[in-house]
């Protein structure tokens, strides 16, 4: 491949600050509501049956529209899409903070998901096309990976502080200053590559099929919790999801300008990253929900103390991402970081299967959180970089959207799936131990803890599977060297990339 001169944007590191700030807002919003949820539920009279929809409404809109958002970023331009997403997300957050009833809150959460689906892929694709030199890319994605991995835990801490000392509504209002600062910085600092857009027409059938398919899939897991796995509506939604997504793949293989070019996911390394990340997030998001309720209801922690209890996990994630992943990414194969990282996280999850009513935080929960954070941070960092490494500029938005899709759909599935497993185990335990229980309250707490530990065992297995997929499918070499990322065929390790000979493109010139 011929070498092409390229100009590096001198303000790229300032741009990273605002891109990372926007990503932090999106990721922490996925969990900040968890701690505020009990207070919001009581204030607005939300039933236990509908409580989960505060989380799921966001995830459905976000996960269902991410591919569309990524394609829009390629079509409209990433900077413009980034700014529109920020403004819309801030407006939806203001609506959520002012919610007067359950319907208004759920609508605001869905609207947050819509604009988040524009914002998240635009942020990651801006990062991917801004940092092309290997060592700089490692540093930039180390920071971004730490935020993506630790943002959820930051949300738990911030949610606790705001809920206890102010009001649950501030878990929404806090997004507004984040968005204002990030949008202002984007206007002043961020510069988009001159030749990075994809001018092809929007694939409307692909948008409809992908959105309906993903929403059906996530909603199917949600209905499984309330109706059961073999109920007609549950099976109908899963069947609809399978038909819609299979049709989507067939359509994408034939249309001239597909929403998701199959070359993006057909490359084994990116496919392995998407699958392993999705599985890892299934385990992690369910864990956040369980441990939030465990620490507050079983252990009696305040919202602030609950949030601070997650702080070691954040420290571990930042350490794993910036000090292990970023430093070794240019010297070690990604699978030798991702697979061990997921195994370390699974070990931390395994420790948490031993929680009971009297579990000591310093003796058991603290080391488990450190292992979880360290493992996930180490795995997330190379995964985030590899998912967009070598992608053509015209596909950067949709490749970034696939990363976020795997995470958001995984989060929604994890919340619904593990919640279903925990609820079933809780009910079974309460029924079998009802006669010999010393008190109804004690039985309730013991049943809850049994349900949590049962679900955590499943999470251990899911993380182990993520490690196996990363080790088997991710076979590329390390992302070192001094040359910029120039095409979708680079970084694929062995063999030619699925994008073929047309993958050779010039390194985009930064516009000053």
In short:
The chain has 18 helices and no strands. It is mostly helical. It has 3 domains: 10-191, MFS general substrate transporter like domains (Growth Hormone, Chain: A); 204-256; 264-432 and 443-475, MFS general substrate transporter like domains (Growth Hormone, Chain: A, Up-down Bundle).
Please tell me about this protein's structure.
By secondary structure, the chain is mainly alpha-helical. The protein folds into three domains: 10-191, MFS general substrate transporter like domains (Growth Hormone, Chain: A); 204-256; 264-432 and 443-475, Up-down Bundle (Growth Hormone, Chain: A), CATH 1.20.1250. Helix content is 75%, strand content 0%. It has helices spanning 12-44, 48-51, 53-76, 78-97, 102-130, 134-165, 170-173, 175-188, 204-227, 232-252, 262-266, 268-298, 303-309, 311-328, 335-352, 361-388, 396-432, 440-473. Helix 1 packs antiparallel against helix 5, helix 3 (53-76) runs antiparallel to helix 4 (78-97) and helix 15 (335-352) runs antiparallel to helix 16 (361-388). The longest helix is centred in the C-terminal third of the chain and has 37 residues, at 396-432. The chain is globular and about 70 Å long. The two termini are 27 Å apart. Mean pLDDT is 81; it is low at 1-6 and 482-512.
